[in-house]
Fold these 3 entries.
Entry 1:
Amino acid sequence: MSEWSPDTRRVLRAYLRAIAVAEPLERELARRYGVALGDVHSLRLLRDLGEVPISRLSAALCIKASRATNLVDRLEGAGLVQRGADPADRRVTTLRLTARAQEALGDQALFESSDLARHVERLTPAERLLLATLLERMLERRPEDHAEPEEGHAEPSTAPQPLAPGGAAASDSSARSEVAR
């Protein structure tokens, strides 16, 4: 086992403590909608893509097809995603969000009232921007997660959002609504 530097240990401890702050939100999402906090991104992406084949969702999430199928199975089991057949090619299975998923994504009050939101709001705008930048950097795709994009489809950008005019971070209300979206 390799020795971690004190800085690495500090980061890991802080990250684990931050995850604990998100746990009540995770539990409430599971109780109300049967969805994990980590799946909200997948639901948002599917909402933005519209009705698409599983392969397109897999490519957009940069995950392997088998992992996307497992994700869809779980979301379908929770009543959040519905499979269908592509009218142009019935061999292709398409996905679309259910009304229950739309409700979960629209429950902004759940996110806004969370401890996680309160902790983030205590940060200054510059600190929030720095935290977002660092988390995005940490979560940049790993080579083993790359899935081949479906031919003819461009992969959506996962780049950080640009700063508002004048270099200021986005407003608090737009940042809050972005989390809930």
Entry 2:
Amino acid sequence: MAKPKYIETPEKLWSLFLDYVNHEKNNPMYRRDYVGKDGMPIDTPLQVPITFEGFECYVADLDIIQDLGDYSNEKNESYAEYRPIITRIRKMCFVQNFKGASVNLFNANLIAKKLGLKEATTNEHIHKVGLDAESKEIYQD
């Protein structure tokens, strides 16, 4: 007998994700700055990046399910109907984080690591070996 699904339909999963996005939007983190000659504290609301892990915590906090592994596992055919929504959720998280880092809303280095992006550089050093025209000796530079 198959175990019951805690999130009954893909539509319910998508609805929960949208609720999570709104929750994050309506519950920003704050940065405290001290301004003016008297150093008056000012709390500035900051947008929070949305993540798949954050979404998992959100549904766990609602006591719906502790882990979305079955829903996101490509090998479990019982949850195949959820794959398009899981893919969309992951892409929405990626895009929101990438856009936020692109406009310096989020720390670009942290987001790049989270998204698995890396900057590759190559260094090329050319070592010439030849003959000195006057002495006919081999030289290196």
Entry 3:
Amino acid sequence: MSRLSIILLAPLVAVALTPAIADDVAAERARLANQRIQIEEERRAREEEERLAQAQAQTESEDRRETNAETAAASEQPGDMSSPPVTRTTQTGVSGAPADRVEMSRALEQLRELGALRDAGYVTEEEFEQLKKKILNGTL
């Protein structure tokens, strides 16, 4: 009799445990999705840092070339040496450039996060476009 009752109760126990298993699966999927978003954000941040470093190195290289060319041109010109050579300033030479880079970096990070939310389905395409415009205008 006890074997028969175990055989009859086993399907009932399995059905009773199914919602708990489904909740565990949903929680694991959510955890994996969050982990994937975080990994993607870290990858994008590394790529952005590398891009900024390359742009800065290129700008510094161009500045050095311009300075060298201007110095060479000034040394080749005979005559009045009373006026110093004219130098052009680039965006990195402007006093507010570090603040601009911080703002740009912050805006890019916000856009990355917004894109991740859109890709994960938390934000619709329309909401994404509206928020993107606000970020790019500096109002968010």
